[in-house]
Amino acid sequence: MGKYFCAECKFFDDNVLKKQYHCDECGICRAGGKENFVHCNKCGCCYSKSMKDTHRCVQRAMHHNCAVCLEFLFETMKEVIVLPCGHTMHRKCFEEMQLHNRYSCPLCQSPLAI
Question: Are 48 and 77 in contact (CB under 8 A)?
Answer without folding.
Answer: no
